């Protein structure tokens, strides 16, 4: 296959066209999530805790649903890149089918085990009762969450990141409006409290699924996507699961590792733990940037590797990382200069503000390293190699970060500074090895890679 010639400017433009909508989508969803939490906080602290605990369990669900999305994105981009539109449509149908089955499965699990799952979190009886109500309403129809990820990934695989962005913004606005109406009541509609917040979320997701189905049918593969005839393709499902499982395992490894080292941080005191949590909430905005560029890298690399343009794939990986490092470094500079000012929005406690400021100043230097990790992980996924990032995440989180938090934070008495230095070392470890793997041309799942 002859390499398609693109200038550096062309590649930058392709990346930005895909990355910016993904970043905006993530940003808008996070901002509206804060508003959502604010409404629930007006009901009471038990309700806020119930939502928080439920979301911690849902994070595991999401890791599995997102893994299907990763596979879908990669394979559709690959087949479109090799001009196999029929195959891309086949992947889309199998992805939708898999999303429905997994979503229904987790809905049944929620219906049967909602209370036992919440009890595992060690919450009090007053919170448990509220949590079960909220959890059942939002998670029994898990098929809606699963389809949201699957359908959005189909569109991203066709290089359309704008439509998922628009749909996400629209349904989140609906969610906020319905939150207010259902939680507090309006005109003839009575107040439903926390249950109202849950129903608002479910209705918004239902609207999202309907809109996404409509846009998928209008997409590049819409003409070959017959949604009336369904059959299970064992081989295609095997491919989707094979690529998606390491991506899922990576996210689960991250979550489980967090639980372990969070236990060490708690030993440093409630104020230090609170400072760490607030710092993490602020850092979420940098993840939105990184994931945006990672989405662009996954889609574009999947597409160009479909036509075996290996050198171009490598350039996309490098340029995506370069752009992401630049933007996230600017964000890091903001954290370093305005960290104390930002912390003051979350608490009035002087000690906690000081702790957050220390953490943010260290995190400022981690930002370019984190950009490399997030974006190159997306590049590996686009190259159908999701195992290597999983191995690095498992070693980095469970060994370097967890041990580092204990040794630096507790044993050497460095407190929150030690915690964030350990986080930085974990990310540095993964960034170096991911970069070296690409540099040495050992990152694409293909025996034909010779460049």
Automatic annotation (TrEMBL):
Keywords for this protein: Antiport, Cell membrane, Ion transport, Membrane, Transmembrane, Transmembrane helix, Transport
Membrane topology: Multi-pass membrane protein
Subcellular location, record wording: Cell membrane
Annotated GO biological process: monoatomic ion transport
GO MF: antiporter activity; xenobiotic transmembrane transporter activity
Function in brief: Multidrug efflux pump.
Family: Belongs to the multi antimicrobial extrusion (MATE) (TC 2.A.66.1) family.
Name assigned to this protein: Probable multidrug resistance protein NorM
Protein species of origin: Filobacillus milosensis
């Amino acid at each position: 296959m002859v390499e398609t010639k693109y200038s550096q400017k062309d590649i930058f433009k392709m990346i930005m066209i895909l990355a910016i909508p993904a970043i905006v989508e993530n940003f808008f969803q996070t901002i509206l999530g804060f508003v959502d939490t604010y409404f629930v906080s007006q009901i009471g602290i038990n309700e806020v805790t119930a939502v928080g605990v439920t979301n911690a369990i849902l994070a595991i669900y999401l890791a599995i649903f997102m893994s299907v999305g990763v596979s879908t994105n990669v394979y559709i981009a690959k087949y479109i890149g090799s001009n196999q539109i029929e195959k891309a449509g086949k992947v889309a149908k199998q992805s939708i089918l898999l999303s429905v089955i997994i979503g229904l499965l987790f809905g049944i699990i929620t219906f049967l085990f909602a209370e036992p799952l919440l009890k595992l979190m060690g919450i009090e009886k007053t919170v448990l009762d509220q949590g079960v109500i909220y959890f059942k309403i939002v998670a029994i129809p898990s098929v809606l969450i699963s389809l949201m990820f699957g359908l959005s990934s189909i569109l991203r695989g066709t290089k359309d990141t704008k439509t998922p962005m628009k749909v996400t913004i629209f349904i989140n606005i609906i969610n906020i409006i319905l939150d207010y109406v259902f939680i507090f009541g309006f005109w003839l509609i009575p107040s439903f409290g926390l249950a109202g917040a849950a129903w608002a979320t479910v209705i918004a997701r239902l609207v999202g699924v309907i809109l996404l189905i409509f846009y998928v049918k209008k997409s590049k593969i819409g003409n070959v996507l017959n949604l009336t005839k369904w059959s299970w393709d064992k081989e295609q499902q095997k491919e989707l699961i094979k690529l998606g499982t390491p991506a899922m395992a990576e996210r689960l490894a991250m979550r489980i590792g967090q639980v372990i080292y969070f236990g060490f941080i708690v030993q440093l005191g409630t104020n230090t733990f609170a400072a760490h949590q607030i710092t993490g909430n602020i850092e979420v905005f940098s993840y939105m940037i990184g994931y945006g560029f990672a989405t662009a890298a996954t889609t574009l690399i999947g597409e160009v590797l479909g036509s075996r343009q290996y050198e171009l794939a490598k350039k996309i990986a490098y340029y995506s990382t370069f752009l992401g490092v630049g933007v996230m470094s600017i964000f890091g500079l903001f954290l370093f200069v305005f960290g104390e000012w930002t912390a003051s929005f979350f608490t009035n406690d002087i000690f906690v503000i000081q702790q957050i400021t220390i953490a943010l100043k260290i995190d400022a230097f981690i930002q370019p390293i984190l950009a490399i990790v997030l974006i190159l992980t997306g590049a590996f996924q686009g190259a159908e190699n999701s195992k290597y990032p999983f191995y690095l995440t498992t070693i980095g989180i469970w060994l370097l970060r967890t041990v580092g938090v204990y040794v630096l934070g507790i044993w050497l008495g460095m407190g929150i500074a030690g915690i964030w230095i350990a986080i930085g070392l974990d990310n540095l470890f993964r960034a170096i090895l991911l970069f070296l793997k690409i540099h040495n041309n050992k990152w694409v799942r293909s025996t034909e890679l010779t460049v």
